[in-house]
Design goal:
By secondary structure, the protein is mainly alpha-helical. It has a single domain, classed as Orthogonal Bundle (Transferase(Phosphotransferase), domain 1), CATH 1.10.510.10. The protein has 10 helices and 7 strands. The strands form 3 sheets. It has a 3-stranded antiparallel β-sheet with strand order 1-3-4. The chain has a two-stranded antiparallel sheet with strand order 2-5. The protein has a two-stranded antiparallel ribbon with strand order 6-7. Helix 2 packs antiparallel against helix 8 and helix 4 packs across helix 7. The protein is globular and about 45 Å long.
């Protein structure tokens, strides 16, 4: 297995708070590239979330993104007409269709989750925060996300907010049509300036040691986490109906 020295996006937000819009775009574009490759091979990740996205340095390249944990991957080419009946993923990042009809999930479900990741990076908060699993799943199905600028109480780049909210649309057909389309839309955004390699290298120079220690501490206490948002689940819907 590859050894990665970096920190998850969870740790990045927990330790350093909301990220600059240009850095959010830089990170999301790289995740899109990973999803493009997976989707091209008929694979849906199903568990895109901050804890499964690692920010690291690769050689001389700072802020390099690695997408991990394909343990819940769905092979669209291996369905053979069978019904899955399993809700699988992390509640805070589950698409509405993953909750209501898990058999129909596809690449668009990963884009919904990526929109939720972008929302967290931009605002420092989950799209929906509820006290119970049932309440959180209901929110994914029915509740309208609060736009980032309203959540933060200050302006954010409108073009980026529009893309993130588009990914979080309840209807898959209204989201970007593919990971490639989303990446191209992100690349086309006109922000005041892009996240440069110079800025990324300066960030890692200033924060490398603290960031890596923070990530190790987070891994050591993960079992003590009381929030339900970040926990991965699998529910056999057919078995639940039989009960």
């Amino acid at each position: 297995m590859e050894y990665l020295e970096g920190l998850s996006l969870n740790a990045l937000v927990d330790q350093y708070g909301p990220q600059p819009a240009e850095r959010v775009v830089h990170i999301l574009m790289q995740v899109c590239k990973s999803l493009e490759e997976a989707h091209l091979h008929g694979l849906v990740h199903r568990d895109i979330k901050p804890a499964n996205i690692i920010l690291c340095e690769r050689g001389t390249t700072p802020d390099f993104v690695k997408v991990l944990d394909f343990g819940l991957v769905k092979d669209l080419g291996a369905q053979n007409g069978t019904v899955e009946d399993v809700v699988a993923g992390t509640p805070a990042y589950l698409s509405p269709e993953a909750v209501s009809d898990p058999d129909i999930i596809g690449p668009s479900s990963d884009l919904y989750a990526l929109g939720a990741v972008g929302y967290l990076l931009l605002t420092g908060e989950e799209v929906f925060e509820r006290k119970s699993l049932a309440g959180l799943l209901q929110a994914q199905l029915l509740d309208r996300p609060v736009p980032p600028h309203e959540r933060m109480g200050r302006p954010v780049p409108e073009v980026l907010e529009k893309l993130i909210m588009g990914c979080l649309d309840k209807y898959p057909a209204n989201r970007p049509e593919s990971a490639l389309a989303l990446r191209e839309a992100l690349e086309a955004l006109e922000l005041p300036h892009a996240w440069s390699e110079h800025e990324a290298r300066a960030w890692w120079t200033n924060h490398r040691q603290q960031a890596l220690v923070t990530e190790v501490a987070a891994e050591a206490t993960v079992l003590d986490e009381s929030r339900i948002q970040g926990l991965t689940l699998q529910v056999d819907v057919h078995a639940r109906k039989a009960d």
